[in-house]
User: What shape does this take?
Amino acid sequence: MRYFKLLAIFYKNSLITELEYRVQFWSNIGLSLFWLAWASVGSGVFFFHTDQIAGWSYHEVLVVVGLFFTVNGFRQMLIQPNLTRLSQYVQMGTLDYILVRPVNSLFLVSLRNIGVHNWGDPLLGMGLVCYAFLDMGRAPGGPEIALFMLLLIAALLILYSLNLLLQTTTIWLVNIERADAVAWSLLEAGRYPVDFYKGWVRSLLTVVVPVAFLTTFPAQALLGRLDNWAALVAPVLATVLFVVSIGFWQFALRYYTSASS
Amino acid sequence: MIRRYYRIYNTLLRVAIGEALQYRAQALFWLLSAVFPLVMMVVWLAVEAEVGPALGWSATDFISYYVAAAMAQRLTGASALWNWQAEIRDGTLSLQLLRPADPVHHIVAAQLGWKLVDLTVVLPLIVIATWLSPAISYPVGPELFAAAAGSMLLGLVLNMMMQSAFAMIAFWTTQSSNVFGLVSGIGQFLSGYIAPLALFPEQFRQVANLLPFRSLVSLPVEMLMGKLSWAEIGFGYAVTLIWLAIFTLIYRLAWRAGLRQYEAVGA
Assistant: This one.
């Protein structure tokens, strides 16, 4: 309860600061909308030449593109302003101040800030998903939506846990900005269904870097054609990764030697 | 006149190269993060597998295209807009104005220095990749390589002047990078970075041929792939030069107007 109150205070502050700059606020929405259109048109170029790619029609691809915006927007709103700054805290020694506060340190490190710039992305992304379904003239049923919600939560949890695992190594390595950038440029691959990729790239994106779990599987759930194994594996993988990453964080903290003293 | 510029650039380039050499690993690192063109390439390969020869582009064509396009995009990429914007916003422009050379020379020389260092990393990689992989081939003679190299250099200069023109907006509002963000977003379609222009509808291609963006990626790449006649190459060069002149003019006019408007922040 106390934690929710804290979050409300943190986020209200960020929002008030952001609303000071009205023009900036609206132009951010405009930009989000522009990049959404950009991505939709960019995916349309392929369909000048074919009706289907690996069994996906244009509208079905748009569902994946919309989810890519949703998931990526979540990353930019909650992960980038928080976990990604961990290596700065370690470099500057300010992690000390976080550790001595009477609140769970992982809570502060992962949820303290919110990137209000990109708040439109998840909403607009889901908007694109709705548009794609409307244009197809069909609607997902109750069970599909329920399964989709489960897979979306799993996707966000997987994304968070992978970030926590990667960022925690900063306790030892101090500077991992480049590794971080490379890892997240891989997320770009989630713009399109993994079925588009062939051979080892597809295996890589499903098993090693689970990009498939972030956008393709939730989209398939909504489209009502998710493989049974994926529906089972996603929540399990999310839970395991979450538990492991938290364990890794607690383990790493024992090795944290402050920079300032 | 010429001697003066020679002296200015001789000094500024040395400094820029020295700076850029410190960050050589970054050029290599770029290679690992250039995932977007790779994704687009892979999707095209999937389309090609579906459609077959009716598409008119083979798998080899796509691979060669995107390798060259990623390289061209890297070599003609500029950061002049952000350099200007930082100087105008922070007021460091005031310092630059006291120096004997116009601030634009500092910005241009810095970019050229970085590109020279980039080249020492990117070029060997491309040569090795082309040599190792039979899927990457540029079936043209040395004269077309020279034409493509010249086109990329012009493309870089054009990009710097285009960005400088848009950067001048910063004298009046803080939105200059947002405005340019929109323009360059549309430009990514028109430059051929997202997909080969040949695979867009005919009207789109005709418009793209007349706009500045094609000079940044597609034009040199089409030359490398042997898709252009000498007449078409001449036309492409002409379009590049005309836009270069237009943007240089706009930038200079806006610069003069902007300076009158400029209130050195922090001074």
Observations:
- DSSP finds 14 helices and no strands in chain A.
- The mean pLDDT of chain A is 86.
- Chain A touches chain B through 30 residues (CB under 8 Å).
- The radius of gyration of chain A is 20 Å.
